[in-house]
Amino acid sequence: MFNKKLFWIVVIPVFFLFLGFLGVKLVNSPNHHTAAEDGKKEEEAKKELPIGNKKQKDIEKAAVELTANPDNNKISSFDKDISTNADELLEKMLDNLSLDMKDVKNGREQFKDNEICIEWEVRIRRKIGDSLSKEQERLMRENHLTALYIKDQSDLNYLENPEISHEEYKENLSSVFKWHQATYKEILSPEEYKRVFEVSMDETDSIIDSMIGAGPEIEITNPETTMDDVYDIVPAEKIERITMLLKERQLGARSINEAVNSGEMSVEEAGEAWAGFYGDYENEVKELLEPEEYELIFGLSEKTRE
CA-CA distance, 43 to 49, in Å (whole number)? Predict the structure, then answer.
C-alpha cells in the first residue's frame, strides 16, 4: 500500500527522475491553508523564486546564479539542538563515487532549470516561506541540487559497473536520501520540517529504509508477483542477465536524453531510438525466459508475448 509520507520525504526532493509523481495529502493542522490560499501563495512564490526555468517564463526572468562559498564545504546548522550525521554521509558518498566538492558544485548546476526541482522550491516557499531567511533558502537550494547530482552519479556508477550489485546500489540510494533529509533537519526547526515533509524528524530514516528495502532487483509489471516469487521460480543467472539488460536499456535512455537536451536529436528521433532500445530488451528477455517465467514477471501469456 502506498505511503503518502514517502512523497514529500523522498520522491519530489530527490527521486523525481526515477520514481515519478505519486500524490500528496494536505497537512491537517492549525497552519493548514485552503486550496485557494495555497494556490495564491504558490503563484507568488513562483514569481519570487530565484532560479531559472526554461518552461516557465515568469520564473525564467528571475533567474540568478547559484552561488556557494568555495572555502566552506560543511553544512551550517541553524538548530544547534539537532545533531545529524550529514557530514559523515556526504563524505562517504563522495568517496564511493570518487568525487570532491568541486565536482559536485560544477555538476549540480545542470539541475537548476529542472521544472520539478523548481516546483519543490515553490512548495517550500508556500509552506514555510514567511519564516525562512535568505541563508536558509540558499543552503536548501544548494543541498537539494547536490543531492540530485549525487543521485545521478550514483545511478551512472551502477549502470556502468557490472560488479556493483543491486543491494550496493540500494545502500547508496539510502545514503543519498538520508543525507538529504539530514541537511533539512539541520537547517529547519522541527515545526518547519513537519510542515514541509508532513512527518517528524525522527520518522524519516525508518520510512526511507522501508522504501529502499522494497525496491525490486528487476522490473516486474505483473501486479501479483513479488521479487521473492521471481527468486523462487527464475534461476539466478537469468535474473542477473535481466539486470544487465536493464542497465543497458537505462544507459541508452540516458544517452537519448542527453542528445535531446543538447539539440543533437529531435523528440521524434528520440522516440524512435527509445523504441529500438526497448524492442531489443524485450526480444532478449523473451528469448531468455521460459513462457511461465515470462508470465510471472510481466503478466503476459505466451500467446500475448509473441
Answer: 10
